[in-house]
What we know:
Chain A is of the alpha/beta class. Chain A contains eleven helices and 14 strands. Chain A has helices at 47-54, 76-79, 98-109, 114-122, 138-149, 168-183, 195-201, 219-225, 241-248, 272-281, 296-304, and strands at residues 7-18, 21-32, 36-40, 62-67, 70-71, 83-86, 156-160, 187-191, 204-209, 212-217, 231-236, 253-259, 262-267, 286-292. In chain A, the strands form three sheets. Chain A has a six-stranded mixed beta sheet, sandwiched between helices. Chain A has a four-stranded antiparallel beta sheet with strand order 2-1-4-5. Chain A has a four-stranded antiparallel beta sheet with strand order 12-13-11-14, with helices on one face. Chain A is elongated. Chain B is mainly α and 281 residues long. Helices cover 74% and strands 0% of the residues of chain B. Chain B has helices spanning 4-18, 22-41, 53-76, 81-86, 88-93, 99-132, 138-165, 169-198, 206-212, 216-228, 254-277. Chains A and B meet through α2 and α3 of A and α1 and α5 of B.
Amino acid sequence: MGSDNQAVINVNNLTKIFNNSAAVKNLSFSVKKGEIFGFLGPNGAGKTTTIKAMLGLIFSNFGTIQINGYDIKRYDKHVKRFIGYMPEKVAFYDNLTALQNLSFYAELKNVPKSECQRLIEEFGLAEHLNKKVGNYSKGMLQRLGLARAILGTPPILILDEPSAGLDPHGVKLVRDKIKQLNDIGVTIFLSSHILSEVQAICSQVGIINNGVLVAQDTVSNLSQNLKIKPKITLTITNLTGNIKNIAQRVEGVERIEIIGNNLQIFCLPESRAKVIIEVHKAGGKISNVQTEEASLEDVFMRLTGG
Amino acid sequence: MADQFSIFSVAKKEVMDNTRNINIIIITIIFAILTVIVSFLGTLTSNGGWQDLKTTVQFLMFFIQFLVPIIGLMLGYASIVGEIEKGTMNALLSEPITRLEIILGKFLGLGLVLAISVFVGFGAAGLVISLNVNNFDFGLYFLFIFFTIILGLVFISISMFFSSILKRRSQSIGMSIFTWSFFSFLWGIMLFAIMASSGTQPEEAEGYFLINLFSPVQTFLSLISINMGSMGVTMMPSLGLSVWVDNFPDFYNTGILLTILLLWIIIPLFLAYISFNRRDV
């Protein structure tokens, strides 16, 4: 992965007001070259507004956005040569075929048309190459949307919910493609509701809530800073209340829940071994041990008040 | 500075998209059939056989002034707002292309579609007429086609303006229908009412010719009339009233009338760009 410290996306104090209400307020963040940046937030938090401002589709009231060092307002056309974009709502010209649609965008990007056919085939749409896009399913449109975004292999890829509406094969295809592109140095800005996906592939995440960026860091740093405890689950065949009380007294344990034969313990990582020993000493017959790091979902819920 | 390559790419896409649009295909076929029928209808008012070109054009003008504006408005009303609603504008604007290039490309492409539609309609009629009329003046016929395309471009430009300022496709359709009714029906009725109330004939009313220049349809009719010979222009074709005007004032000449139609193209298109260039998509 090509990762120097150069920020290729710089958003500074972005503010966008719709009907006297700020959709985004003083939003600032940066994305470094070669990163996969996960952009998260509840519905209506301002994710799509931010993305649209980054692409010059909407005009900010205040603040600046620089892509590769160029101000989007001043160098709009030039900046877009660096960007591939897949919108949340993928749409094409219904009367044209997949090949005709992609060829149109290839012309605008000055990309050889031979790449269109290759991408269509790569995304499993070879059989539908010359069918009108108006007859495509949502999943097929999503695939074609991603193909359009990566035409010409732009150095920055902005993906707004790329897995929405895809079957598991499609989801895997998208995930593999993102990784593959990142491996060759493409910076990826990914907005997604699928937190497990973001956690699995993103090196950095930014979380936006009510138009304000509430956090930007790695998932593990965020969970550490928020003091979100990892979880250890012990399956105990003779689980009793006494065992729970003994485990509860171990230093570093935050809380304990009993679910069937499972004892779910939220504690500091260094307390895990001690908990297991104390449960064993109390006569607990442990048949299984499972550890789970703090998830992005925990972080997300904590930061967005879920 | 607009990039010609981007403009042509958008124009090409518009031609490909619209020539596959079933509504445009249907109206082109209707246009072609009506043109042939109308030119044939001339036989009812003469000694039999096909009418000469001027008489045919006179008949054609009755429906061209309704049909060509409709084609223009149909092509342009969704050009901006339709793409925004559908979501294709997002993708288009994320490409290396400016909003000016999109407006110019769309206008060029839609203009070409309209020109194709008019050529198909008039081409079919022209072919049939030329086979039945002696000394068919192709030059004059092409001039008639050219002016008709200019009229269509005016309405494409007007509808693109609506499409760029209005928030919904339905509003754009509504404004396009109103514009069509206004210039094709209401204008004549309004002027006729003014004439009738003042008890003057059109030729006598000095202001009549001046006011008429504010209507692209009336300007087009006058332009045809001046160039195709003294066949007059009807004020109220919608009511079937033939108030023929044969004596145009001096300032009614091809240059001025054509300039007015070109202004009707340029001004709405410029306003469409100004509006689109400030619009959040």
